[in-house]
Amino acid sequence: MSRRPAVALAVLTAAAVSVVPAHAATKPKPKPIKASYNLTLLPDPTPNATNSIGKEGCGVIPQSQNKHPFTVPAAGTLKVVLDSPNPTGNSTASTDWDLYVLDADGAIMDSSHGGTSHEETTDKLKKKQGVTLWVCNLAGEPSGTVTYTFTYA
Q1: Are 112 and 153 in contact (CB under 8 A)?
Q2: CA-CA distance, 58 to 56, in Å (whole number)?
């Protein structure tokens, strides 16, 4: 075999091996993680007083709060929704729950604490890490539902 055909064959072989379809190189994102859980918590209005002096968080009665750990598996977005029924049907009625997202050290990363029984947070996270969903009932009905969705980046 002469040198030219051998070199040409080697170049063609290398080119064929290096050409990989674009779809073969990228993996599809995993499906979002969706979960929910129900709560029964007694009302504890003490945070209404402590929040006025700049202290965020749930009150002093343990039966009025719940901490739910979750490990964020990778970079992505975590959306958390808290809902509790409002028996009056009036959106301005005084039913109040709060939602906090805590980092692995227990510091508040995000919160939703308006004067309603519907709270939401959305957080972009850069890596795998532990978080805690901290929920408290200040002046609402005793039942609530937390729903969360983690979407990979």
Answers
A1: no
A2: 7
Q: Which CATH number characterizes residue 122's domain?
A: 2.60.120.380
What pTM value is reported for the model? 0.77
Q: Any idea how long the chain is?
A: 153
Q: How many domains would you assign to the chain? A: 1
d(CA 114, CA 99): 9
Query: Quick one: which of 69, 81, 87 has its CA closest to 121?
Result: 81
Domain that holds residue 68: 27-152
What does the pLDDT read at residue 85? Answer: 86
**What is the spatial distance between Cα 153 and Cα 145, in angstroms, rounded to a whole number?**
26
Would residue 91 count as lying in a domain?
yes
- pLDDT-derived band at 133, boundaries 50, 70, 90: very high
